[in-house]
Structure formats: C-alpha cells, structure tokens
Amino acid sequence: NAGVTQTPKFQVLKTGQSMTLQCAQDMNHEYMSWYRQDPGMGLRLIHYSVGAGITDQGEVPNGYNVSRSTTEDFPLRLLSAAPSQTSVYFCASSLSGANVLTFGAGSRLTVL
Amino acid sequence: AQSVSQHNHHVILSEAASLELGCNYSYGGTVNLFWYVQYPGQHLQLLLKYFSGDPLVKGIKGFEAEFIKSKFSFNLRKPSVQWSDTAEYFCAALGDKLIFGTGTRLQVFP
Fold it and tell me: What is the per-residue pLDDT for B28?
C-alpha cells in the first residue's frame, strides 16, 4: 500500500538511551519531515528535507538528528533520550514543500 | 518568525450548531494555508487548502474556510456540525516551512 510507514509504533526508553525512528515512503516524494505532537502544543516541526542529501532544522531540532541518504527514507535519531522527548512523533511527506502532506500513523515514545 | 495562532483551544457544540474556528498566521511573504483534522485514534488528514485564487475555499464534509489577507486569517467554518465532526483541528501555514497551530479540540454532542 502506498503511503508513509513509521516504525516502531510504540517505544519505551530509559533516559540516556539512543534510538532511531524509521520513516519510509513509496510515493517518490521529495519533501519529508518529522513533527512531534504534544497536548496543548499542536504539531511542532523537528527537521525536514527537501530532497536526498538535504536536511534542515525546524522549530524544535535540539536532541534530534536526521539524514536523507535516499528519497524513500528519513530516519529520526535520538542520541541521548530525555523525558522531555516523550511524545508522539509523526513523519510526513509530499511531492514538494508546497504540497499537501501525507502523514504516517505515528510513533508513541515514552522516555523514563 | 513564522507562526500560527489558533484562539479556540476547546469548543463544545450541540449537533446542528454552526462552527467557526479562528486561525491567524504571521509571515512576511506569500503563504499557503491548510486545515488538517485528526479524528480520535487516527492520524492527520487534509480538510482543505488555500494556495491562490478565490479566498473562499471548500473542503470535505461541508467545511469551508476564508482567507482574509488584510487580517492574516484563515478561519474554518461549517454551517451545521455533526457528532462525527468530533476531532482535533489544526491550522497550518507554509511560508519557508510548514508550521502548525496548537490545535482546537471540537466536541459535538447529539
């Protein structure tokens, strides 16, 4: 099925652990992005990419790294997890930054 | 800096009532505007969008929004809500990046 696939759906980490949230799309979209959703704060842009090899920071990039080695994949890395990173993370993609986003189903991360 | 403000955090309505959700943005250039909806347990879906042309845009499920450039606003409206409209609604503005507002939780009671 065409769309945006995020893994894992749920993850529990201890403070200081590292992990990678995976995001893949099969629609040949150039633009990909990561958001975190927190109650009362809406969606906040973490990082985005306008194409393979190009990434840029969003509103809340600290504590997160990204890379875009292929058009299809856009992983989000937490190098040293903190409780403040407990959130629901959404990956989204579109043909270009000006188009409608297609969202993944989300990844719920809890950092203890 | 680019930003989006949604003034109504939580709205409670009875079925058949009219709805208007406020959205204001700030950005120094041309923006594309969106309303997304998140039904309980689901991920975000596009409700409607404005890129250019007629400032009154119609979306799915009877929703519409009006772009008023002088007020930097893009308010969402629906003449008669249904119980199935219970969801969280997000306004978003695309300037140099896509920024979302904090969302409005709508509860519709039968």
Answer: 85
